[in-house]
Structures are given as C-alpha cells and as structure tokens.
Design a protein that fits this description.
CNF1/YfiH-like putative cysteine hydrolases, about 20% strand
Length: about 240
C-alpha cells in the first residue's frame, strides 16, 4: 500500500480510497457472526503509512479520517458509539447514554469498556492494541454488544457484565448468544492468558457459541498494532458491530 495516508492532517476530513482502510468483515474469525442474518461485524487492522506516537489521542486523531471513511462506506454510518475504555467492567446501553468529548475530537461514553444495543443501525466500536475485542450477537432478540477485555477487564468479568445487561434490558438468553474473541496478545508474549479466562467465562455464562481463532497481535505487526511489542508507540485496531435494519 502507498504511504500517502501519512500525509493526512490531524483531524482532517478526506475520503481515502478503500484500499487504505479495508473493513475486514469477511475475515474468518468474524464468520460466526457475519453468517447470521441481521448482523454485521467488522475489523479494521493496522493501516500502513499512518504515523504512530506514544500519545494515544494524537494517534487516534491521525486514524480518525480513515476510520470514519471506512465506517461510512461499509456500515453506512457517519459516526459510531465508543466506550471511553478505562480498563474496567462497566457496560453501557446505547442509544441514550451520556457522552463526553475524547481527545481525538469524537464522543465517547465515559467510564465504560463495553456497549450494547437493540436498536438497528447503531454502530458500536471498540479500539484495541493487544487487549481483546469481544463481539456479542443475540440470535433471539437481535441485540448486539462489543466489549474491551484485556487483563483487567477479564479479571473483573466484563463478559458476564455485558451478557447480564443484555439479559436485563432485552430479555437475552445466554444460549442464544454468539461470542467471538478477536486477535489479542497471548503467551509467550504476555504472561497472562486472559484469552483463556474469557473462554472459561463464556462457558460459565452458558453462551450458545464461543469462537476464538487464537490469533496473537504480538506475532504479526504487518496486520496488527501491539502496545507491548511497540512499547506504547502504536495505533489501535477498530472492532465494529451493528444490528442491521
């Protein structure tokens, strides 16, 4: 790919060619959700040519126009819901949640690491760079969720929190939920196997399907950002999900 994307100004507004920002909804690890009628899941991996720094918000500002163009093109949305991501277990119901302005200029739901919705067309997004993105799709009610679960979130049980919120608000039955864990850091590159903990929590919650292809973000910096391997000077992958109308 060209390094033309590196010339994008911070917070700029462009419509880059699709080759710069593939929303890889067709990736096999998302097939368990994308093969279901009424759901669409996506993943934007590493984008070549975008300068990264240790300043998260500065880097996200550089990624922002590319991510916005991709979400508009492939999900038909101008914006997506974002969690502030504080490494906790809080999950918010959207729309309706309060938001604050993040450092990259986009609104986020404060104090939470996960989002759930029953409303068609409401795109959910989570940023990761070694932590795991967890997609939730309820085949019974049509509800969807997206969670940020690394070491802390997994220890605190954010998966159970998300399923519990869906159960309380939408009548979700865990056996109807398809759960997918995306690429994340794993041993031997990280001493904590939080992916294994997430799998155990999915079993304990009684979800109908749990899928994890075991992809390690630390192993391929051509495809992934890795906070640990790149010592914080890194970007963020963007996980996406929507209940289609």
């Amino acid at each position: 790919m060209s390094d033309e994307a590196a010339d994008i100004p911070l917070g700029g507004s462009i419509a880059p060619p699709s080759r710069f920002v593939p929303v890889t909804g067709a990736l096999s690890f998302l097939d368990p959700i994308n093969r279901l009628a009424g759901f669409r899941a996506g993943w934007i991996g590493r984008i070549e040519g975008v300068e990264t720094t240790t300043d998260r918000e500065e880097t996200l500002a550089r990624l922002r126009p590319l991510h916005e163009a991709a979400v508009k093109r492939d999900f038909g949305a101008e914006r997506w819901w974002r969690a502030e991501q504080v490494h906790g277990k809080g999950v918010a119901l959207v729309p309706g949640a309060d938001t604050i302005l993040s450092g990259d200029g986009l609104p986020v739901v404060p104090g939470v690491d996960g989002l759930v919705t029953l409303q068609p067309g409401e795109v959910l997004g989570i940023y990761v760079a070694d932590c795991g993105a967890i997609w939730l799709a309820d085949r019974g009610t049509g509800a969807v969720g997206l969670l940020h679960s690394g070491k802390k979130g997994s220890e605190l049980g954010i998966l159970a929190e998300g399923i519990g919120l869906m159960t309380k608000n939408f009548g979700t039955r865990p056996e109807n939920v398809v759960v997918v864990l995306g690429p994340c850091i794993r041993p031997p590159h990280y001493e904590i196997d939080f992916a294994a903990e997430i799998a155990c929590q999915a079993e304990q919650a009684g979800v109908g399907e749990f899928h994890d292809q075991g992809e390690n973000t630390a192993c391929d910096l051509r495809e992934h950002y890795s906070y640990r391997i790149e010592k914080g000077c890194t970007g963020r992958m963007l996980a996406l999900i929507v209940r289609e109308a």
